[in-house]
Amino acid sequence: MHQERTRRVASGWTMLPFNLAISLTGVGLFISGIALAQGRAAEGLGVFLILAGMFVFAFSALMLRGHFTLQPNQARVLMLFGEYTGTAREAGFWWANPFYLRRLISLRLTTLEGAHLKVNDKGGNPIEIAVVIVWKVRDTAQACFDVDNYQDYVKVQSETSVRHLASSYAYDHGEEHEITLRSGVDEVSHALRDELQARLATAGVEIVEARLTHLAYAPEIAQAMLRRQQAEAIIAARKMIVHGAVSMVQLALQELADKRIVDLDEERKAAMVSNLLVVLCGEAEVQPVVNTGTLYS
């Protein structure tokens, strides 16, 4: 694996006057050579000056090619005849060896919005999942030389990580105290970020953030799962209603006994409990029946 090395380069503003002076020298020699070549006495010297001027001008053009600029959060990987020589990271106007092959690398944050993937969760249920990943290049040498195309590498490894993550967690119904995709969004996002960082470390990429953006059952089981969730919600609501009704009945019997309003035998207590539970737990409004006789008639 390669490791980034910082390469110091010359200031472009310092080298620019020198390179322009070489260019003007080449132009001057060329013009002087043409003037001398017109006279027969110095024809040979004129030809020489013309050739020298052309050579100097070509050399100045080569030197001017060494100038380059860097914006903030940009870097240029410098290679000389296939060998990595270093990376220039500082923003500004610079000059380097004109024979350097310079590859521009962006160090800015990049957002990758993944497509909606259809995968199976831990329980084998087909689900749809999508993520958004924020990443940046940390090591330019690894990004350039250790993988073929680091941007494509990030996309492929991201999809692989999402599929592996989805198969490691249940969508919504796991075991007791088990993290699920739906209830443990923060934990799942941290796990996704850690796995992506481990996979992309060889490409010199740093994962800044990874979050789930879409999570749903696949269309073929969505209706069945919706009915299941509705049934679970109804059962939970019924449990709460029954618990509250029993507490109210217990309180009513306790108040009647403590204040000695009426003494009820076990049969009448059972009838009272039954009536109160029907009133409190029933969905429809109960019509009261007034007893105009005695308690036992």
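Above is the first protein from milestone M3; the second protein from the same milestone is given next.
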Amino acid sequence: MRRFLLPLFLGLLSTPAFAHKPSDSYLKLALEGSNVQGQWDIALRDLDYALGLDADGDGAITWGELRPRHQEIAAYAFSHLRIKTEGGTCAPKVREHLVDHHTDGAYAVLQFDALCPKAPEPLSISYRLFFDLDPQHKGLLNLSQGGQTYTAIFSPEQDTQRIEFLGASRIKQFLSYGWEGIWHIWIGYDHILFLLSLLLPAVLKREGNRWRALASFREAAIDVLKIVTAFTVAHSITLSLAALELIALPSRWVESAIAASVVLAALNNLYPLVSRRRWVVAFVFGLVHGLGFANVLTDLGLPKASLLLSLVGFNLGVEAGQLAIVSVFLPLAYRVRHSWSYQGVTLRLGSALIALVACVWLLERSLELSFS
């Protein structure tokens, strides 16, 4: 068990150390009669990897480098997307090429129309962009028709979606956003590392200048319950306020503050300033993380017809994903809490590595640098 926990923990660190934001694209479709109006946001860094857009190799893709490649970009993108109805394929035609900025950098924006042979009901969408280059890539779909909204995630394992709006229900909408919440906590490496920073000392207690193992699992579980509850309440508050457009902060500030929260939480394990009421730390920084979750919902879009239901579904999905992490980590940590490898290596080395990774994120996000 001791040999298992440390490699598992270091494995969690290895991926985000080099890519704190997974590769995503955002596909928004609006159905009006037999016409599909679309907008497709694709990260320039992903297109550069596939097509080599950075002509001078200076690490920055300028509009001058991008403009002559518009047709090539569109051809490449739409060769990996197919929209079909029972009457045949809906042929896309690009209206405009733009550039927009998401929290993780610049994106090419393809605005297009796709005329279908008949009214697109039901609609089948096949998505295979970048799957041959990056098996971790995901396509986030937001599709609307007549006040109803459908969301889905395309992946190599699920590259086709069939949508029947007449069969859509509020329960399906709730479950769909619930799954989005689960998925985004699992790929939100900064949120995971913040949570792990708080969980690492949960099976220990501070006595003098040393960490000592807790006597009972119940004591550790109560501490974790306080931390998770405080984090949940806090991010639920700001997530709801931001999703309802009652508060708004620049995403660069939010993402930088999230990275800073991870740094501080990890350093607190090495130089403990707050050792008994870490739930207070979870609550304060949870307010910031809630704004980060709201950025995800902004990209996905919230259906106005079922705004509250979708918001609750997403939030409960986040909690389910969070509890899954806790349920795996806590029993393992409690099992090996007495060992020198946990107290001396997993806690200290793990916290140091988390702080280092988060420092890189903080520099990238606050100064708009790239170390990967």
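Note on the second protein: Residues 24-168 form one domain.
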